[in-house]
Amino acid sequence: MTKQKVKLDPKYLEELSKIDQLLKEQFIKHLISGTYLENNSAELYLKFYNFVGHYANKDEEAENLYHYYKKIIDDFSKELAKELNVISNDDIIDIFLDISNRMDILISYMSKTFSYLDLYFVKSKNLKTLLESALEIYKNNNFLPVQKELIDGVNKLMQEDRKGKKENRKKIKSNSRYTK
Prior knowledge:
Shape: elongated
Strand content: under 5%
Order of helices and strands: HHHHHHHH
Oligomer: single chain
Structural class: mainly alpha
């Protein structure tokens, strides 16, 4: 059985295009660079939240939004993963923590703006929640490729801690939530 291609509302597509451009210019670009948020992020959040709320109960648009959400998280995650590929093992813990913090910000932001989608579309279609999808993407793109190096790095920090170098405790504690 083949799935019929559904024609999406042109107004929806136009609005999504505008919001996508704002999201990438005002939010994601700054998260990738590490400068985080612009002052106008609250305005963007409200636009996005209202947009998703309007279309979350319309099946075709909601399905498109679900895939859009996953694509934004996946693209961002892959962009950050590039940082992990060009570092030495000595820096991996610091870089991984920074990447994890930026992913936390994006996932939290996107989950809040897409909350109506979780309430209506995801629940009615028995799909993974937005958070579950985002965490799976993060795990596959950012954690699993460097899991061994992270565990080795945390073990090294723990050995140094046992020898009296106490300044590594925060790194050990921060990484333990990822390496369990």
